[in-house]
Design a protein that fits this description.
By secondary structure, this protein is mainly beta. Helix content is 12%, strand content 36%. The protein contains two helices and 18 strands. The strands form five sheets. Strands 1, 4, 6, 7, 8, 9 and 12 form a seven-stranded antiparallel sheet that branches. Strands 2-15-14-5 form a four-stranded mixed sheet, with no helix packed on it. The chain starts with a helix and ends in a 12-residue tail after the last strand.
C-alpha cells in the first residue's frame, strides 16, 4: 500500500501539463516585437514633442501691387517695374514652447516657383522668379522676428533678423535655438520655455523680357512656416501664412490727349451748293501729352461716336451742340 506522501507525488505527476517549447519561443517573440513597437512610438513621440505652438495665425494674403500697371517700352530687362512693396509684418505669428537646445524658427519658403535667370539687387542678390505673365518676374525678401516670453536664453536677443533671399527650400537643422529665412542664428541657451516668432516680407516686380498685356493668375508663391529640429514643419499647409500673386493687370502704356473744341465758323444755308456739297475745311490741333519714356513715335485713330456716314466722315450733331444755322 502506498503512503499518503507517495500518493500526492503520484497525483502531482499524473496531472502536470507539459509546456510546448515552440509556443514559448513565439510568446517571447511577440513580447519583443511589442517592446520594439512601443519604443518606436516613444521615439516618434519624443521627436515631435520637441516643441509645441499654442498660438498660430494662419492667413491668405495677396501681394498688394497696383491693380493696373503699364510697363514703359524702353525699360531694360532686369529693371524694376515697381518699388519694393510691403506684403506682411507680424511679430508673434506663432508662440511656441520648446525644450533645451532644440532649434526652432520661422522660415519663408517659395512654392510653385521657378527661377527666371535674373537677380535683383546686391548684397544680397534676390532671385527673380517667373510669373504666369510673359516678361514679368517677382523677387521677395524676408525677415524673421524673435521675442522671448519666458525662459533663459544665452546669446540670443529679441528683434528682427534679415533681410534674406526667398528660396524654395528651407530646412531646420543643427542644435540650439535659432531663427532664419535662409540663414540661421544659433543660441546656446540653457532652458527655453516659450518664445514668439514672426516675420515680414516685401516683394518687387522685375522686367525679365517683353511684357505681354494680361493679368496675373492668382497663385500661391510662398509661405511663412514654423519649424524645429524635432519636426520638419509644424502644421505645414494648415498653419501657414500663405502669400499669393493677386489680380494685377498689365497694359500697353499710352499717351493722353485733351478735349479739343473746333470752331467751324458761321454759315448760312446759302453757303451750300446742294446736298452732298461741303464748305472749306477748318484746321485744328490735337496735343499728345504724357507719353511714357522710350516712345519714339505714336499712332492715332479718330473714331466717331455718332456717325451719319463713316466712309465720308459725316458726324451727327448732338442735342448739346452749340451749332446754329442762319437762313
Amino acid at each position: 500500500m502506498q503512503s499518503q506522501s507517495q500518493m500526492r507525488r503520484s497525483a502531482t505527476t499524473t496531472h502536470s501539463t507539459r509546456v510546448n517549447p515552440g509556443w514559448l519561443r513565439w510568446q517571447r517573440t511577440m513580447v519583443a516585437q511589442g517592446l520594439l513597437v512601443l519604443f518606436a512610438f516613444w521615439v516618434m513621440g519624443s521627436a515631435h514633442a520637441a516643441y509645441r505652438c499654442n498660438t498660430r495665425t494662419p492667413a491668405d494674403i495677396d501681394l498688394p501691387f497696383a491693380k493696373t500697371i503699364s510697363v514703359p517700352p524702353g525699360l531694360k530687362a532686369g529693371s524694376a517695374i515697381t518699388a519694393w512693396t510691403a506684403v506682411d509684418s507680424i511679430e508673434k505669428a506663432y508662440v511656441c514652447a520648446t525644450r533645451e537646445r532644440d532649434r526652432i524658427g520661422v522660415y519663408n519658403v517659395g512654392i510653385n516657383l521657378s527661377p527666371s535667370g535674373y537677380t535683383y539687387g546686391t548684397n544680397p542678390q534676390y532671385t527673380v522668379w517667373k510669373t504666369n505673365l510673359t516678361g514679368v518676374g517677382v523677387a521677395v525678401r524676408t525677415w524673421t522676428y524673435l521675442r522671448w516670453i519666458v525662459g533663459v536664453q544665452g546669446g540670443c536677443s529679441d528683434g528682427w533678423r534679415g533681410p534674406t533671399n526667398l528660396t524654395t527650400t528651407a530646412i531646420v537643422t543643427g542644435s540650439g535655438v535659432g531663427s532664419a529665412s535662409g540663414a540661421s542664428a544659433s543660441c546656446g541657451g540653457t532652458l527655453i520655455q516659450s518664445a514668439g516668432w514672426g516675420g515680414k516680407s516685401e516683394a518687387i516686380l522685375v522686367k525679365i523680357g517683353d511684357v505681354s498685356p494680361g493679368s496675373f493668375k492668382r497663385t500661391q508663391i510662398y509661405a511663412m512656416r514654423i519649424g524645429g529640429s524635432g519636426d520638419s514643419w509644424y502644421g505645414a499647409g494648415t498653419y501657414d501664412r500663405k502669400y499669393y500673386l493677386g489680380s494685377t493687370s498689365f497694359t500697353r502704356p499710352t499717351c493722353s490727349t485733351p478735349d479739343v473744341t473746333v470752331d467751324m465758323g458761321k454759315h448760312s444755308n446759302g453757303s451750300f451748293a446742294g446736298v452732298g456739297s461741303t464748305l472749306a475745311p477748318v484746321k485744328f490741333t490735337v496735343s499728345i501729352n504724357s507719353c511714357p519714356t522710350g516712345y519714339s513715335k505714336v499712332s492715332y485713330l479718330f473714331s466717331s461716336l455718332q456717325a451719319v456716314d463713316n466712309d465720308m466722315g459725316l458726324l451727327k450733331m448732338t442735342s448739346t451742340s452749340s451749332m446754329t444755322w442762319a437762313c
